[in-house]
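Thread: Newbie trying to understand structure tokens

Hi all, I'm a second-year student working on a class project, and my supervisor (Dr. K.) asked me to get a predicted structure for one chain before our next meeting. I've only ever worked with sequences, so writing a 3D structure as a token string is new to me. If someone could post the tokens and maybe explain what I'm looking at, I'd be very grateful. Here's the chain:
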Amino acid sequence: MAAPPTRSNNALDPSHLPAYKTPMNLLTQLCSIPTAPFVEHRVVDFAKRFAADRNLRVSTDTAGNLLLELRTKSRLPRWVFAAHMDHPGMVARRMIDATTLEADFRGFVVAQLMTNVAVRFFVGEEEIRGTIIEAIPEKKGPRAQRVRVKVRKEIPAGACGMFDLGEGRVKGKLFYSRVCDDLAGAAGALAMLEALAKKPPESPVAVLLTRAEEEGFIGAIAAVRERSLLRETDRLVAIECSAVQPAAPQGLGPIIRVGDRTSIFNSALTYFLTQQAETLAKKDKSFGFQRALMPGGTCEATVYDIYGYLSSSICVALGNYHNMNREKKTIGPEYIDVSDWQNMVKLFIHLARTGHEYAPGFTALKARIEKRFEELVPFLYPPTH
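---
Reply by user tm_fold:
Sure, no problem. This is what the structure looks like when written as tokens:
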């Protein structure tokens, strides 16, 4: 892997980045922005600028979650594609001395992997390098709770810090960055809005961007409790970069996620997603997809489900989940397969355009099995001789 750059104001101020021209350009831009739980403001600024440039309707709740909507007069139930804006990282607490910083670590990363790891803190337009000299785990687990960092200059309290693993870049068939989970998911949702903007689909479509998922879905829980952004009739598709599994490898397409480590998602909605993916695969020979349980973690679809919303999930398989290279026992950049991400965007667009066809329950599946039943039922009751 190429050495990460020593400084890049582009990561700090998205307005300095090249104009968004392609979905891959958008992926690279968004995954180069610093973020951590509860300090997602740079991602928020990017999303608001993106929406303003495209005349999208933007709403926010008191928790700071964002909803970006295509303008429409349709009264059909709305499709909401949801992704989170944070990633495991550090938030500066205090300077212990002139060159030693104490910072909170937010999100799940094993403390044992973090000693002597290079980091960067983002202060205004400046990037300040440092090295973790101690990672303190929680009392009852391996997760890092706090770190001490040797830094080159004073870091103000509240500054965001991340592992020094470089911005978004493509190498061969893979996309690497210090953060894919879940800014790559958010980028896919924004790319969908871009594709739909000139000709909105029949059903209303929106993208929900949530905060602090890595600390226990705090933004998503606030959204479902406050209910200022969501409607009871929404069909929710939670987007994730999920730890690669043996049954769902990289390179075979996006994954319709039937469940996570905690719960199984809405069966009827998941069946509809699968149906639409199969239809798209017949039309587009370059499109592939998978369908699997992804038990590497819990995602926001579980939150939406337990609060009574119709929800399912789509993800791409993620390497070095939460920057943890478990095999080498070190910290490394996250990575996803480029074609998986591109096909995920295709699937989002197709779902948005066919969402009006969804009927609650198993209408389509029931019709399919009853047709087969009518064809073969005579064999159940053969004539007697």
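A couple of things are worth pointing out once you decode it. The chain has nine helices and 19 strands. Residues 267-283 form the longest helix (17 residues). Feel free to ask follow-ups in this thread.
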